[in-house]
Automatic annotation (TrEMBL):
Source organism of the structure: Seriola dumerili (Greater amberjack)
Keyword terms, alphabetized: Repeat, TPR repeat
Protein family (similarity comment): Belongs to the TTC38 family.
Keyword match Nuclease: no
Record carries keyword Zinc: no
Residue ranges crossing the lipid bilayer per the database entry: none
InterPro entries linked to this entry: TPR-like_helical_dom_sf, TTC38
Protein name: Tetratricopeptide repeat protein 38
Amino acid sequence: MPSPGLSVSCEFNTAPVTVGSKAGRAHSCNSEMIAASFRDCEAWRAEGLKLSTSSNEACKLYDALLTQYVKWRNDETLGGFEGCISAIQAADPNFVMGHVISTGLELVGTTSSTRLNERLASAVRRTVELANSQDISPRERLHVKAMELFSHGNFPKACDVWEDILVDHPTDMLALKFAHDAYFYMGAQTPMRDSVARVLPHWKPHMPLSSYLKGLYSFGLLETRFYDQAEKVAMEGLTLTPDDAWSVHSVAHVYEMKAEVDKGLKFMEGREKDWQVSDVLASHNYWHWALYFIEKGQYEAALQIYDDQVFRRCKATGSMLDTVDASSMLCRLEMEGVCVKDRWQELLQVTQPHTDDHVTLFNDLHFLMVSLGAKESGTSQRLLEGLQELAKEPGDNQQHHLAETIGVPMCRAMMEYNRGNYSGAMELLYPLRYRMVDIGGSDAQRDLFNQLLIHAAMKSENKHHQKLGRCLLVERDAVRPNSPLTDRLMQRALALHV
């Protein structure tokens, strides 16, 4: 889960509003810290990554912002994301790569759509105009092109451009990270892995941020089911950088996918002090911790994490990663028979303003969970109809192209399930089971829909569906043996269909 964690308003000619967990707070940039720690114009040039600005301060601030992005952390000593974005603006208002990283971070945060947000659309146009009016390098021009493509929802073409950059500039961390995020949004698991594998030999230990490639590569490995290798690579990353929250996150995924629950609980608790400083990813790592408790049937412990960490942070940040995690947790708990009380209503206050966004199908499906859970039928219907309308003329938007064949049927399946029409939900969802990967996210995140399919099959009055449900459970047990959650579902299926 890449930078869906970021919630950031980045246009240069407006004051930035929110980044990570620093919503609404002003930050000043620590110029002494910046001067001492980060790369100036000459350092970037020496690495073959020339930045078209004469301002050393702007170059260092770009590095400071990139570093926080890679570390998933608002660094208070640097003024956080907000402080660095404001300071880049002051240092050189016409610095193209300053615009690329600032506006790009807002775009990959997926909290806002250029279709609806004129300020964001204007920031993209301004970046393009600046690039066209300046003599910048071919690499920088490609960065602008990729950001513009991404802003139109053309994730595949944006990735192609970032990969073009990496062929000639394999140590361009911004291109690597933006591509990693976009592959994630498309469920492009193998490209996400191979994108990092291709550049690994070019990164040397002395290079800034080099150790963080371990976490990036590990995540691609685990999403392509190389769990043992993924764990090994992530642990290598943690040996180099113990507070690398993304490597911690990769290991959490491995234990989740292998149902090694006690191992996962021990690992997350033992390293909590290291990973919780990465505030942009902390809520998501707490979400992984809570999944182990749900797996074990320890629902009160999971709810405590939801209340104390996941929802609290989601409400404070508006981060999309935090928001979908909160949505998913409540849905998983309800499927387990847990009463979540008024939590759906509270979460609706966060998700409802995003009903018309339609930035990614993955986000839409999570917003729908909340409106259904809160029994807000008008919002649910509006989301579905909005998606149906965009599917008619998707243009270059890859997500809208998928809306008709995947997004809309999945939304309708969830609505039928919510109405108690389990047979209808099954008919819609079952044919999509091997295509759900296209909505993006990770295997662990999408497992929610696998569980929903199993519940629909078990609750359906159709005998064939009930048999399919038992088949799905056998299949689940084969790839994740020793899963307490699967065992509970099997017992429930037997009890229902004796």
